[in-house]
Amino acid sequence: SIFFSNKLHKAGEVSDCQSSSKDKVHMFMSSYIEMQTLKTPRVRDVTTQVSLQLALKFNGGGHINHTIFWTNLSPNGGGEPQGELLEAIKRDFGSLQKMKEKMSAATVAVQGSGWGWLGFDKDSGRLRIAACANQDPLQGTTGLVPLLGIDVWEHAYYLQYKNVRPDYVKAIWNVVNWENVSERLQAAKK
Ligand SMILES: [Fe+2]
């Protein structure tokens, strides 16, 4: 199914080529790997343990990341965030435009496949920009609570943008669901 079929903008189709079928693979693999991990004797086979953990990180992370990503985007998205989120962005980055520029730059600069993130630092109570490689989950990797993610695996944009990652990252701001990002900030502050 086409995720954002009503949106004329190219960015509206970003999720079509990586529809929920890919996420189901991540979910299935996570369950499978967890079962294998439970079945593997703890000390005897460290190599197997390590490889299972890496596979779990990839598939579990992939599921977590895409679950956030799909709710972060909306065909009715774009525009500006409101209220507390906007105030926090202004406080921590100077302006919405500066935050977008910083996050876009960090996301475009990901080596190979990975994700760019706007996250919440619970210790300082501030917003931060981060990037993660592969499917490494933001919170498990950096401690930041994920608010907004940009998937820069090539499958996320190849159909519409070929290998031009900066154009895709620029366009994705047109479909950001700021209400979802705000809800995530509220939840993270509790
Ligand atoms: Fe993806």
Produce the secondary structure layout.
Blueprint (H helix, E strand, L loop, with lengths): L19 H20 L6 H27 L10 H11 L2 H13 L5 E8 L4 E8 L4 H5 L2 E7 L6 H4 L3 H8 L5 H12 L1
Antiparallel strand pairs: 1-2, 1-3
Helix pairs in contact: 1-2
Please characterize this protein's 3D structure.
It is a single chain. The protein is of the alpha+beta class and about 190 residues long. The protein is built from 8 helices and 3 strands. It has a single domain, classed as 3-Layer(bab) Sandwich (minor pseudopilin epsh fold). It is about 55% helix and about 10% strand. Strands 2-1-3 form a 3-stranded antiparallel sheet. β1 (about 115-120) and β2 (about 125-135) form a beta hairpin. The radius of gyration is 17 Å and the shape is globular. It starts with 19 loop residues before the first helix and ends with a helix. Bound molecules: fe (ii) ion (FE2). Fe (ii) ion binds near residues 18, 66, 155 and 156.
Summarize the main sheet: 3 strands, antiparallel
CATH class label? Alpha Beta
Quickly give the structural class.
alpha+beta
Reading the helices and strands in chain order gives: HHHHEEHEHHH
What's the count of strands? 3
Question: What would a concise description of this structure say?
Answer:
The chain is α+β, with helices and mostly antiparallel strands. The chain has helices at residues 20-39, 46-72, 83-93, 96-108, 138-142, 158-161, 165-172, 178-189, and strands spanning 114-121, 126-133, 145-151.
